[in-house]
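[agent] plan:
  1. take the single chain provided in the ticket
  2. run structure prediction with default settings
  3. attach structure tokens to the ticket
  4. add a short note for the reviewer (M.T.)
[agent] executing step 1
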Amino acid sequence: MGAPMKHISFLVLLMIFLGPDGKRGVHGAGDHQCGKSSIDNEVTKLAPCTLAAHDEKAEVSDKCCTVVKNVDVSCLCAILLSDIAKSSRINPVVAVTIPKRCNIANRAVGYKCGAYTLP
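[agent] step 2 finished; step 3 output follows
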């Protein structure tokens, strides 16, 4: 798998778990918005999180944590449920742990995004 696709997959999962707005709920792929930005643009921002999204033992960079703190949880969920994420084979179980691994205090713990729940 190429590096760009790994970055996209990781970003999608990371956005799901961090949820800086603290909102909780159950959402489907059609329920998510990324504002005026496209999902592709949002995924690109999460590139620094690629390794952490594939390996739960990998250190999460400061840059990754900074990006994750600023992504809306509903947009993160949209990315996670997107075709881009599926095609990049990101491990959603690992990706959703990134906000916790970044020690983000106001992450959206318990937020439901499809079959995944943020820890």
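[agent] step 4 note for reviewer: The chain has one domain: 3-117.
[agent] ticket updated
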